[in-house]
Amino acid sequence: MKKVTIIEDEKNCFLCQNCLKEWIPAILAHKKNYKVKKGEVIFREGDPVKGIFFVKSGIVKVHKRWGADKELILRFASEGLIFGHRALGGDGIYSISATAVQAGVVSYVDMEFFDATLKVNTNFTYDLLMFMAQDLRISERKMRNLAHMPVKGRVAEALIILKDQFGLTPEGFINIELSRQDLASFSGATYETVFRVINELIQDGLLVLSGKSISIANYNKLLKLTEDIA
Amino acid sequence: MKKVTIIEDEKNCFLCQNCLKEWIPAILAHKKNYKVKKGEVIFREGDPVKGIFFVKSGIVKVHKRWGADKELILRFASEGLIFGHRALGGDGIYSISATAVQAGVVSYVDMEFFDATLKVNTNFTYDLLMFMAQDLRISERKMRNLAHMPVKGRVAEALIILKDQFGLTPEGFINIELSRQDLASFSGATYETVFRVINELIQDGLLVLSGKSISIANYNKLLKLTEDIA
DNA sequence: CGTGGCGTTGACCGGGATCAAGTAGAGTGG
DNA sequence: CCACTCTACTTGATCCCGGTCAACGCCACG
Fold first, then answer.
1. Which of A107, A125, A137, B91 has its CA 20 to 30 A from that of B45?
2. A190 C-beta less than 7 Å away from strand D
C-alpha cells in the first residue's frame, strides 16, 4: 500500500477536496487505503455498514441485485468519487453492492468518524448535499428512462454517460474497459439485446468498434436517441 | 390564505421540524403559503428554479414526463414533506414537475434564503442530508424494480408504499384518493395493464375494492410479490 | 488437449404496450 | 327531467420489443 502525500489526496479525494484545509490532516490520519483487484467485491448488499469509501484509483461499480443472476449497475465511481454514502442515516445495512471493475485503491473512513466530520465540518456537509442532489437528479432521470425509453436509447445514454465520465483515449475510444455484461447491466437490459443494439448502432454509423473498445462516430445522432420527441 | 402559528409549523414542516428553535421565527417570516387546487401544477420540468417547497396540507406528486403523454411519478409528498430540493446545486432548471393531487396548502421559501439557511444552520443541513440519502435508497430500489421486477410486483410495491405513507381509513382502505392513471404512473406501467393486474390481485384475494378505494386483504402475499426469490 | 468463460447469433415466445370500442357516471345546458 | 358531452373506467384483440433459450465459435489457461 503506497504512501500518499497530503497534496495528492487533496487533489483526488472527494472528502479532502471539499473539506476545510485544517481538517485534512485529521482525515488523512483516519483514512485507510485498500488495494482492490479487478472484480473484487468491496461490500455487498446486506452487509453491515462499516464506513464510507472513496476511489483513489481504479473504477468501482455500484450495483443492486435482483434474484440470483440479475443486477442493475447504478453508477460508476471513478477517481476522487465517494461511494457508500447512501448508507447515511439508514438501517445500518448496505442497500447496494460495490465491486471494482478496474483494479485500484480505495480509501475508507469509518462511519463514526465520517459522521463526526459531517457534524463539525459544515462546508463538507453542504458540498455533499449538493453532490447528493445531483445523484438524485441522475437517478430520477434513469428511473424515467427505464420506465419509458426503449433499450436503444438507454444504451445510447449509457455510452454518453461513460464518455462524459471517463473521456476518450487518444485514439478516440471511450476510456473504460467494460464487459458487455456490465454495459448491459448499466443500460438495464440483457446481454444479448445490448449486443444486437450495438450492432444496429454500428450499422447506422453511430458507433465504431475496435475489439472491445467503443468509439462514438456520430455524437449528435446518438444524443437524439436519448430524447423524447415522441 | 390562513395565518398559521409557529407551533403549527413546527409540527408540520420539514424545515421547521429539523431546524434550530431560534431560527424558526426567521424562517416563518420568509415562508409564503400558497393554496393549491387539485390538479394544479406547482412547477414544471424546465421551469427556472425559484425556491423550495413544503407541503402544509394536501398531497403533491413529483413526476417526470416522457414524450407528450407519458409520465413517471417519482414520489408523493404529503404533509410536512419537502419537495423541489432536488434542484439544489443544479443548473437552475427544475428537472421534475410537481402537481397537487389533493388540494391543500404548500409553503415556499426562495432559493437564496434556503441556501443561506443551509450554510448557517448546520443541524438542518445534516438532517436534510440524511433525508436525501433515504430518498436515494428509495430511488435506487425503484430503479432496480423498473429494470427487473414484473408489473405485478411493482403494483404491489406501489400499494404498500402508499399504505405506509398515507395509512388506512377507519374502514381499512388506503387513505389516498388516486386516479388509476396516477397509480399506473407511479407503478411505471400503463393504465390498462395496471387495471388488469389489480383485477388479478382481487381474484387472488390480495386486494378488496370499494369504488375507487383499495384495501389490502393479504399483506403478506402482497409483500411476497415484491421479493426477488427468483 | 479439454474446459470454461465470453462473444455471437438464431429461434422462439410472452409480458405488457397499443389500439379500439363500449360503459358508467358527473356535470351542464335546454 | 332528459339529452349531451366529457372524462374516467373496463375489456377484448392484436402486436412487437426485448427477454429467454440454445447452440456454436473463439481464445486463454490449466
1. A125
2. yes
| Total-model pTM | 0.92
> What does residue A118 show for φ and ψ, rounded to 5 degrees?
-55, -45
Encode burial over A74-99: b for 16+ CB neighbours within 10 A, e otherwise.
bbbbbbbbbbbbbbbbeeeebbbbbb
- CA dist B170 and B160 (Å) reads 17
Residue pair A14/A85 in contact by the 8 Å Cβ criterion: no
Chain B 150-189, residues with CB within 8 Å of chain A CB atoms: 188
* From A68, A136, A141, residue closest to B136, measured CB to CB: A136
Pairing of strands A82-83, A70-77: unpaired
Per CB-CB distance under 8 Å, the chain B contacts of A70 are 148
Residue numbers 177-196 of B with CB closer than 7 A to any atom of strand D? 179-181, 191-192, 195-196
Pairing of strands B51-66, B82-83: antiparallel
By the 8 A CB rule, do B73 and B63 touch? yes
Q: Chain B residue closest to A120 (CA)?
A: B122
For residue B22, what are the CA distances in angstroms to B19, B28, B55, B121? 8, 11, 22, 10
Widest distance between CA atoms in chain A: 56
Residue that is written with C-alpha cell 410479490 in the block: B225
Residue pLDDT, tens place only, B153-165: 999 999 999 999 9
Which chain B residues touch A157 with a CB distance below 8 Å?
A: none
Determine the Cα–Cα distance for residues B164 and B166; give it in Å rounded to an integer: 6
Closest CA to A84 of A65, A57, A60: A60
Which string of DSSP letters, residue by residue, matches B100-146?
A: EEEEEEEEEEEHHHHHHHHHH-HHHHHHHHHHHHHHHHHHHHHHHHH
Q: At what angle do helices A151-166 and A122-148 cross, to 10 degrees?
A: 150
Minimal CA–CA distance to B187: which of B178, A170, B210, B124? Answer: B178
Query: Are B221 and B211 spatial neighbours (Cβ–Cβ below 8 Å)?
Result: no
pLDDT tens digits, one per residue of A13-25: 888 888 888 888 8
Cβ A180 to strand C below 7 Å: yes
Domains parsed from chain A with CATH numbers: 2-139 (2.60.120.10), 149-225 (1.10.10.10)
Please state the separation of Cα B86 from the chain's center in Å.
13
The rounded mean pLDDT for chain B is 90
Which grid cell sits at A230? 415522441
Closest-CA residue to A125 (of B221, B140, B90, B133): B133
